[in-house]
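Predict structure. Input: FAD-dependent urate hydroxylase, 387 residues.
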Amino acid sequence: MDDLKVVIIGAGMGGLATGIALRQVGYHVEIYDRVSELRPAGAGISLWSNGVKVLNRMGLGKAIAQIGGQMDRMQYHSHTGELLTDVSLDPLVQKVGQRPYPVARTDLQTMLLHEFGAENVQLNCKCVEIEQTETGVTARFENGRTATGDLLIGADGTHSIVRDRVLGHPTDRHYVGYVNWNGLVPISPDLAPANSWAIYVGEHKRASLMPVGDGRFYFFFDVPLPKGSVSTPDHYREELMSFFKGWAAPVQTLIERLDPLRTNRVEIHDIEPLERFVKGRVALLGDAAHSTAPDLGQGGCQAIEDAEVLTRYLHSTTLGVEDALKRYESERLGRTADIVLRARKRSHMTHGKDPEKTQQWYEQLKHEDGSDIINAISNTILAGPLH
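Output follows.
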């Protein structure tokens, strides 16, 4: 199909990646976002090899390598500092054909915006209604503007408005059971080796340091808490010191060193796998389609995979837009549902939903030679569209 005009709602990672991919095959793309200023949610993201491969195909391999962190190993420690396992990621890279690149979200969004053209993103455009005809689809915005195209892509995140229009009903977000604090700190040897992902586990909690570009660690803390707990940045350090009292020295140093005003605190939610992603000429993508807990590190990668699959079907099939979108939906429903449910299951295991299972996991880590970890990650990567 040639000369398509595509309207994308949402200028996050998924929307921008899709816009780039669609323009590269010759389509006219317009992106709209409700915000007045683009600010990526969260400080960092683990961009695993399946996501990187799609960016490579888009010609962004060199750019992502420049902003990504050098992550050569994974280390698990007990909360008191005992090294449980230390795994080289080289076998993973050899198995899947591409190294992962942990990256700061701001750097990733800047890279994608530069490629698409920030001037081509229309801000202050909150989509409030969608109308379809046999030949096109129109988005109406709160400010009175409209945008009409051959198809519309809802990449408007976990609180998606487009999703409600596709499904015909609102969806409930499911609280996974824990609160996550995350941010960036300078790489320092008293925190972790510069090329290692260091994870401290115990008491159903986690503290993690992952290298991203420009000499920084992306850090996060996880604590199981009741839904609706609140806090403010002026209490974050005190809060974390209480939750992680008695933990190893690097964890204490991290708490002292983080900047509370640049630290995010988020209740982690997902959404039950949807029954469909498509209605006529409208398709969902990214968190709008499959909002997942971050416990497999695959949320961003799945949005990027969506971009590749959607573009491929639009560009390669000749039975019309609606047929191409249905093929996209058919390929992505099972893949993303599997990610959502496995991430939820892993979250429960990690955060003490069944304390006995969590304790068994701690014990397994003491005897882990790395093969189970590498196999689990590589199987997830290789189930994607680019093997």
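Residues 321-350 form the longest helix (30 residues).
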